[in-house]
Amino acid sequence: MDRSLSGFEYNAFVSYSHADDLWARWILRGLESYRVPRHLVGTEGTHGPIPKRLNKIFRDREELAAGHCLDKKIEEALRKSQVLLVVCSPNAATSYGVAREIELFKEMRGEEHIFYIIIDGEPNAAARGLDSRLECFPTPLIGKQEQATNPYQAPLAADARPSGDGKRQALQKVIAGILGINLDTLVRRDLQRRQRRMALITGSALLGMTLTSALAFHAYRSSEQSLAALAHAQRQQDEAESLIRFISGRINHTLWRRGQDDLIRDITDRLIQHYEGQNRPNMGPEEISRYAASLEFLARTQMENSQNHRVAELIDGLVETTRAQLSASAENKDNLYTTHIGALGVGYLSNYLRGNFDVCQQMVDERFDLLNAILKTGNTERHIKGWLSDTYMARGHLKMLREALPGEAVTDIEHGIKIRREIAENNPLWLGSVGGGLRYLANIYMEYAPIAHAIEKQQEALANYKTAAQSVPQDLPTKFLQHRFYLELADMKLQAGNASGALEAIDLAQSGMAPIIEARPWDIRKKIHFLLGNALRGQQSLLLEDTEIAYSYLHDTATELGSILASSDESSDAFTWFLDVKAWEAKALVQLGRHTEASKLVNEIDIALKSRPKTFFESHFGRRMTANFLDASIELQRALGEQEAASALCLLTIEKFWKNQENYHPAIRATLLKALDILGKREEAKLVSNSLYGLGYRSREFLALKDRLDSSSGE
């Protein structure tokens, strides 16, 4: 067996959190591509003769779940590794797998053979008075000094942050440690090598200048051959661009449908590196279009891994580039239109996940202007119609999300569905898109129409998704969305008082999600939706007054969601879901009489809400979560006997939700109803009560309150 250094099969074992996969790949490439300076090869390092290359690096490819046994292959690889290199970040600090690998390696080899490279966060954050969520050291490393040294005479910690060593020097520190040499020696040899290379380049340039005159005459005589060579090179360039177009479009789309996110990340990383190396303002429409397509697929995979902001800057720059190109060019407008429309689509997704709804609205308006300009030319190609339907959907969604205007929202959504149905007549895959439109419609109906109508539309959406999933069995996104929409159906049935129907829908959702999540452990977004099913189980149990069971579901769900959000870059809506679950948990604690714990939880939610941007409270998610939080707070103050505080919260609830209550979700109106009843506003309470009953709202608590209100009116 080939042993690279002193009997070890691997130069290093790289331990990292899967959320830091891009960094891990950068480190791996840097180590394996590094050529040891020739004068150092064969000399004695701390662990024997120094090799030419560090090409035996073991990279842990699977994050291990807490409670699972460490895979024997990984344990064996740790035993065969000369050093352990830990990639330190807030993600790694909360990773069970990274902590376990450190502990095992310490047992085998001791601490002196462990190196760590800081890529994000702060070391020993809590001890330094910083936010503990910034901690970058896994638990087994807490308390270590950044500049501690080991037998290799190199710092244990390399700091790749811009404020630290920077990427190049950090990598050199790591390499020096693995080779077992002094860092200064390596840096000096590297500098000498670069100087020799520069001298060689300079000499070659002078020689080239000398030969230029002699070659000029020969070049003139060979002009025909040169033109032929140029034409050949152009053909090769065209073929290469055609291949890039095929990869960035069809191959990436196929891989996305089949859930091959890891391959998509590798491909899109390479494509983006290619385009980032070019001068973007000078790129043509075709190149910009492929760049946009690559970013779109990268954005999708980052969203699934809860790393939304990683591509945000690239996407914002792309939109500005395509906008400037469209403004500056007077020719080839059709291509420029479609390129910019595609960029706006990616930009909309990125800004939506960041909660920038005003920017989303501007992009939707801009898309409509461009699409109308294209349609006026008579272009009705399928992708143009598809974009038009998407833009109608986005505008309708924003009208409901930001402004609570259900009538206008329904008009836009129905228009978008009509276009999608036309496309689906010739392409069954579009049935999933039809289902997506119907699902939007169902959610809007939940705001102002009878709940039975919303349930009917949601079931119709599910039927379309089921047909689309059956037509293309390997289409994982469509299959997962089908199961995710069962969760929304469960919520609707809970509002209608159908607890058993809600539980059946949750079971269908989670049984379908489980195998997809098992096959894609890196897919954080899907795991979050699975956990929301457990939150619905908790809500169902609470409504049925099974308080202990409800608390167990809600507490466990909130804990898992909190752990995920602390180590990821999740979207605004996911953080809202997390706070919503915590509010339900607080209600359960109040009902269990655990008032001190409930008070602590309510205070935590209150602090989190105060840190949210204004747009949070303008969205549908934010409104519903705020109402749920106020409801929990009112229940807590009443349980504590603080009637004055409870009354103040009731007044705040009325102030927030009375004016536009006819366009709000039934759960928000139910909270408003309780506030009106507590303050003795009987007429207003009866108005809301009758409206809710007419919608089909049937929770136990509501029905009891309605009976009391009706009885009092008859006295």
Structure description:
- The chain is mainly alpha-helical and 715 residues long.
- It has 28 helices and 7 strands.
- The chain has helices spanning 21-33, 72-79, 90-93, 96-109, 167-179, 183-221, 223-257, 261-276, 285-304, 312-328, 333-353, 357-375, 382-403, 406-424, 431-448, 451-471, 476-495, 499-519, 524-543, 547-566, 572-591, 595-610, 614-618, 620-639, 643-657, 666-678, 682-695, 700-714, and strands at residues 10-15, 44-45, 48-49, 57-59, 81-88, 114-118, 157-159.
- It has a 5-stranded parallel sheet with strand order 4-1-5-6-7, sandwiched between helices. Strands 2-3 form a two-stranded antiparallel ribbon.
- Helix 7 packs parallel to helix 9, helix 19 (524-543) runs antiparallel to helix 20 and helix 25 crosses helix 26 (666-678).
- The protein is globular, with a radius of gyration of 30 Å.
